[in-house]
Amino acid sequence: MIPRVRAPLSTACRCALLRCLVFGLAALAGTSPAQAEDPPHWLSSSINIDCTSQCHVPHQASGGNLTANASNVALCQSCHNPAGLAQDLSINSNDAAVPGVDGYHHGFDVCALNTETGAQPPLDNEMLLRLMGADVPCPQGYAVCSTCHNQHSSDGSLGGTPRVSPAKQTTALGSTGTVTSQGTFNGAESFWYLIEIDGQGSQATATFQWSKDNGTSWMQTGVAAGNGGPVTLADGVEVVFTGGGGAAFLVGERWEFSGSWPFLRAALELAGAGSVMCRDCHREWDLTCPGDGTCPSVTTWNGGSVKSHPVRVAYPVPGTEGFYDDGPREGDGTAQGTGDDGNPTNDLIFDGNSDIECLTCHGVHYADSNTLTLDQP
Ligand code: HEC
Ligand code: HEC
Ligand code: HEC
Ligand code: HEC
Hints:
The protein has 377 residues and is an alpha+beta fold. It contains seven helices and 14 strands. Residues 73, 76, 80, 89, 91, 106, 108, 143, 145, 147-149, 160-161, 163, 262, 264, 268, 364-366 line the site of one heme C (HEC).
């Protein structure tokens, strides 16, 4: 377990330090050091995110004269910026949502008490501990990246959309072949995947080996490249090799990518119990009864203040109730599921109980509020 402490910058250093110790001890004891820190927030074969770099990051932070509450966001943004190590997942302050105005990321560095959106300091203790920089205008403290994210732990059981990052070539020896990654990641925790060519050839004849620990050990060797079709590794992850000619892939060439969960601090809506991230802070707006299941009707508006669309209620099976007859639709008007407008980010998603949740309708990052366009960095 990672110690839970409050101060943002020293947290990064101390946690990383502890992890360094664990990592070192594990190495000494000859046990696997893997998962000392969860990928992609940990060393890959080519990216250097380790204890020392992690501790030095605050000193290169993008925010200049940082206040205590600004520093957590700036730490994240020191990599999550258009030129940083996490440039594919850049999150810029200018793009954060201002209610009723614009923006496409959920607000960060925002006062946790916001009556306009029914937001209050969370009840979840781990999230509450990470409201930072309380001041006179905001004695409750500010919600920052780490209020919602645990940057050290990527745990699939907390929900969220899993991600397979694009494969990047890290060792090029002059060949012309390409490797792409795809699939829906379903591992319990995150991994870096390393692909190395171990038999020269074309997409039809080359072979490769692959690793989940940056090449310390290999899961499989001599695997056929699949002749342009997807080759399944594990955890729902697939790779595709493309390239003709006997030297399209050369021995020793490497590609890497991660399969990961979004480092959540608390569970999103899940079947059964668990803390419920969105409804925790926005509980003023919650139309669900407290103590789920204790009320005869979960959808009764109390008549007073603004409430959200009901959540934690089942989406009826199409055809069973008049006005639901058609089921959800794609942006192009075809039925979701059977039709496909090629845009997974406008699909209405339901939780493990087929219930409607906040994230059925809302995105969190890169949510451009336009059904017709793909929500992406
Ligand atoms: C030292 C660099 C670095 C710092 C600092 C950093 N990240 Fe990351 N983060 C990365 C990299 C690299 C990736 C993977 C990017 C990719 O796949 O293209 C990543 C990915 C992520 C993901 C996506 C995981 C997924 O699969 O959905 C989340 C969430 C995330 N970071 C949150 C944070 C938060 C919150 C902070 C600050 C507390 C933070 N990061 C600070 C480097 C960093
Ligand atoms: C840590 C508490 C907290 C959590 C967790 C949280 N919110 Fe918020 N939310 C806020 C606060 C505070 C604001 C007001 C932001 C501001 O002042 O700009 C807000 C604003 C919003 C807005 C208005 C944004 C806009 O464009 O106007 C939406 C929509 C929203 N939240 C949805 C969600 C969803 C969906 C989730 C779950 C993924 C969630 N929130 C989780 C605290 C939270
Ligand atoms: C109000 C809570 C909240 C705040 C504040 C927040 N995030 Fe997130 N973030 C989430 C949730 C929830 C997801 C997962 C959404 C999903 O899986 O559909 C997510 C996903 C991500 C991802 C993955 C996006 C993708 O498309 O794969 C990154 C990267 C990320 N967050 C980084 C950050 C950084 C950096 C900050 C601060 C600048 C931040 N987040 C602030 C709740 C939050
Ligand atoms: C059925 C779809 C749906 C569900 C479910 C839903 N919302 Fe919304 N929400 C919307 C739409 C559409 C808007 C924009 C309406 C508007 O601006 O008048 C909105 C607006 C908001 C806003 C106000 C944004 C602003 O700028 O004032 C907040 C906050 C919010 N939702 C939070 C939540 C939370 C928290 C949940 C889960 C408890 C939730 N919503 C569930 C569709 C939904």
